[in-house]
Every structure is written in structure tokens, then in C-alpha cells.
Amino acid sequence: MRAQLHDYVNDNFVQEDDFLQTVRQETAQHGLPLINIDPYEGRILQVLVAMSGAKTVIEIGTLAGYSGIWIARGLPLDGKLITIEKSSKHADLARSHFEQAGLSDKVTVYQGNALQILRKIEHDAPYDMVFIDADKPNYVAYLEWAVDNLRIGGTVMAHNAFWAGRILSPNNGDDQGMIAFNDLLANHPQLESTILEVGDGLAVGVKVRVSCFLIE
């Protein structure tokens, strides 16, 4: 029954057009890791962006631009997505995909170390939303940056919250990174948070306090 309901949602609500399918195909053809979000997760991202009224979104981990396209499509006409990718190969492919999707004026791709780039763009904070889908050992650092640089009411989201179940039986640094991230998200005094049980788990937190001591 659950699988049938999942298919029902996909058939009726997930409009993955020909171009998005092409992006996924080219991701494989160019030898990039097949770790992008699923179409169903992409649609959820698009709806959450539109629902939140976000105008400025930071994405950490671009890959080939698949998730970024879903996010950018949820933005208003004057919205802006800043997406950060460590690999120059991946960043170049993503820029091409954003251009082909007609989103070049909405999306800026930064290539390099995410933590260094995040520090450089702090002067434009606060932001409305941060989406994390990158190296797991740094998830905690990305979350801390997001909380510091989101507006009140802003949202942080992260892919792989379930980490294919490895959060229940950790064996390496990536597994421990996801456990630490989930623990911080669940207990952070400035956030109201949860994990949506979709795909590999979509972590969501809303910034509700200016600091640990002051409630808006």
C-alpha cells in the first residue's frame, strides 16, 4: 500500500520535465556520483521554498545543479540562489545546466571550499533559507553557519538525515557526522526542527530565536 501511495504522489504531483531528466542522465554520463536528490524530494524542496516565501537561498553542495534547479523554480522572480560546489568539474556542468534551464540570472555558482566561501558571503546575511547536501563531517559546521546567518523565521534543510540507516550503526566519520548533525538540529536552542520521512530523510529547522538566551 505504501509503495502504491508513493507512486500516486509521483504520478500526480512530481512533474520532472524532460530537462530535469536530462540533468540526471548527464550527471551519470559525466562520471559524477549519483547522489543527487530524487524527483520527489526535489518537488518537496520547490514547494517548501515557495511556501516559505524565501527570496535568498544558500545551497551547500551543487553537484550538477539538479537540486538547485528545483530550488530556483520555487523562488519568486526576484529570488536568488547562491550554490557552492567544491569540484570545478561539477561547478562547470552545473553552470551549463542552469543556463540551459533559463536560470542563470537567478543562480550564482561559487566553486571552492564551502566554509571559506560561506565566510565571504556573510556580509549579505541574513538569508531566508539554507539547504545542505555536501560532505557529512562538516554538516555540523554548516548548520552552525546557517543558524548564525538566517533571519528569524528562516529555514535550514539538509539531505541524507537518515544516511541510509547508518545513523543507527555508525562505522566511520561520515556516519558520526550525520549523527552529530541530527543531535545538534534536534537540540539547538534557536531552532524548531524535525526530520521529514521522505527519501533518505529531509531534516528541517526553523530559526525561532535570535540567540540561546533571547526569544523573539
Keywords:
alpha/beta, 43% helix, 7 strands, globular, 216 residues, 7-stranded mixed beta sheet
Task: Describe the protein's topology.
Elements lengths: L1 H12 L4 H12 L9 H14 L3 E5 L5 H9 L5 E6 L2 H13 L6 E5 L2 H7 L6 E6 L6 H11 E9 L14 H15 L3 E6 L5 E6 L9
Parallel strand pairs: 1-2, 1-4, 2-3, 4-5
Antiparallel strand pairs: 5-7, 6-7
Helix pairs in contact: 3-4
SSE order, as H and E? HHHEHEHEHEHEHEE
**How many strands appear in the DSSP assignment?**
7
Helix content: 40-55%
Q: Order of strands in the sheet with the most strands?
A: 3-2-1-4-5-7-6
| Average of per-residue pLDDT values | 93
Question: Spans with pLDDT under 50 lasting ≥5 residues?
Answer: none
Q: What is the makeup of the main sheet?
A: 7 strands, mixed
Structural class: alpha/beta
Shape: globular
Number of helical regions: 8
| Span of the ends, CA to CA | 44 Å
Give Rg in angstroms: 17 Å
In terms of DSSP E residues, the strand content is 15-25%
Describe the structure.
- The chain is α/β, with parallel strands linked by helices and 216 residues long.
- It contains 8 helices and 7 strands.
- The longest helix has 15 residues.
- The termini are far apart.
